[in-house]
Amino acid sequence: MVTLVLLLGCTADRAPQTGLLPLGQSALARRMSIDLRGILPTTEELRSAESAGADSLIDGWLADPHFEAHLVDALAEDWLVRADELKLEADEFGVDIDAYTFARSFANEPTRLMARIAAEDRPWTETVTADWTMANHTLAEILPLEFEDPADPAEWRVARYTDGRPAGGVVMTSGLWLRYSTTLFNYNRGRAAALAQYLLCVDIASRPVAFVAFPGTSSIEQESAVHTEPTCIACHASLDSLAGTLFGFWPFEDEDGVEVVRYHPERERYGEILTGVSPAYFGTPVTSAAQLGPLIANDPRFSMCTAQRTAARLWGRQPADDEYAKVVALQQALTTGGFSMKALLRAVLATEDYRVGSLAENAEDAVVDRTRTVRVLSTTTLASAVEDLTGFRWIWEQADELDGDVTGYRVLLGGADGNTVRSQNPTPTVSHVVAMQRLAELAGAYVAEADLAAARGDRRLIGTTVDDAALAPDDEALAAELIAVHRRMLGVTPDADERAELGELYGAVASTEGSEAGWAAVVSTLLRDPAFWTY
Amino acid sequence: MARIWVPPRPLSRRALLGAGGLTLGGLFLPSPLAAAVTGAQRRFVFVFCPGGWDQSMVFAPVFSSEVDRDFGDAPASAGGIPYVDSEARPSVRRFFEAWAARTCVVNGWNVPSVAHEVCTRLTMTGTVTASQDDWVSIVANGAGPEVPMPNVLLDGPLFPNLYPTASVRLGTNGQLSALLTGEASARSTLRANAPSASSEALSDALLRRRLDRYTQRHLVGTGATVGAATRIALDRAEVLRGYADELEYRSEDALTAGVTTILACFELGLARTATLAYGTGGNGAWDTHSDNRVQDTLYEALFAALCDLCDGLDASPGSHGGTLLDETCIVVLSEMGRTPLYNSAAGKDHWPYTSALFIGSGVRGGQVVGEYADDLTGQPIDIATGAPSASGEVLYPGHLGATILALADIDPGPWVPEGSGRTIEAVLE
Question: Residue A229, SS3?
Answer without folding.
Answer: coil
